[in-house]
Amino acid sequence: MAQIVSLAASPRTTTGKGAARQTRFRGKVPAVIYGHGRETQSLEVEAKALEKALTGVEPASTIIELAVDGMKTRTLIREIQRHPIRPDIIHVDFYEIHAEEKVKLKVPVHLVGNPDGVRNAGGVLDQVTREVEIEVMPDNIPDRVELDVTALKIGDSLHVRDLHIANATILTLADLTIATVVPPRAEEVTAPVPEAAAEVAEPELIRKVREGEEVEGEGAAAGEGGAKPETKGGGAATPAKGEKAEKVEKPKGGKES
């Protein structure tokens, strides 16, 4: 059975974005109530009281007994808007319900048990559908719907038609898959990294030969096969640049010839 939570609310006379910001600045949450032909009424509720009322329950399937100006009205929460960054509630829509009229709402589906395909074959349980829509009398609203998945093997599935909800009509398509056991996911094999291409040798720098500088190889060729130039008169050859001339010693005790 659905839980019933009491909450106090006050009429809100101002509307619009600016008024809503002021309401939140005072620690309250803007809200509206509608349903059963009544005009939409703007309300405000204490933010802390609202958070406390919704703690540990399924908001979509919990009956909120809303007290406004001393009058209690049973409602369902149709929408909760939260801040895009913080978990703060910034707006709530309440829908009035009557005990003698059926209501349409969505209830969460909770999976129970550990599937055979997970225990013995390493499969993975995948829940595809997490809530279903039903039509039910307010006093028979279930808090949630449980579905046993213990017998599922790899490749097996359970669908909406496998659900059993007492005193309620399921409106969601019967063939819609709720849960399935899929084969274990294969580990990704990392492809071997190709070896780096051989580095291209840098081109040899060609340097212009300056005047008076021997080209590499020419001097060696001259030394191996070429004759050294002789000086006039058959004298000794003039030593090349950089070479030291041999010192000629005079014979001792003799005269120069």
Summarize the structure.
The chain has 257 residues and is mainly β. It has 4 helices and 13 strands.
H and E order: EHEEHEEEEHEEEEEEH
**How are strands sequenced across the largest beta sheet?**
1-3-2-6-5-4
Task: Work out the helicity level.
Answer: 10-25%
List the total number of helices.
4
**Cα gyration radius (Å):** 48 Å
Q: State the CATH topology of the domain at 4-97.
A: Ribosomal Protein L25, Chain P
How would you sum up the major sheet?
6 strands, mixed, barrel
CATH class categorisation of the domain at 4-97:
Mainly Beta
Share of residues in strands: 25-35%
Q: Can you tell me the residue ranges where pLDDT is under 50 for at least 5 consecutive residues? A: 219-236, 242-257
Find the count of extended strands (DSSP E, 2+ residues). 13
Could you report the average pLDDT, rounded to the nearest whole number? 81
- CATH architectural label of the domain at 4-97: Beta Barrel
Main structural class: mainly beta
In one word, what is the shape? globular
Write up this protein.
By secondary structure, this protein is mainly β. Among the domains are: 4-97, Ribosomal Protein L25, Chain P, CATH 2.40.240; 105-182, RNA Polymerase Alpha Subunit, Chain A, domain 2. It has four helices and 13 strands. The longest helix has 9 residues, at 17-25. The radius of gyration is 48 Å and the shape is globular. Mean pLDDT is 81; it is low at 219-236 and 242-257.
Sequence-ordered SSE layout with sheet pairings:
Elements: E1 4-11, H1 17-25, E2 28-35, E3 38-46, H2 47-54, E4 63-68, E5 71-82, E6 89-96, E7 103-112, H3 116-121, E8 124-127, E9 131-136, E10 145-148, E11 157-159, E12 168-170, E13 177-182, H4 218-225
Parallel strand pairs: 1-4, 2-6, 7-10
Antiparallel strand pairs: 1-3, 2-3, 4-5, 5-6, 7-9, 8-13, 9-12, 11-13
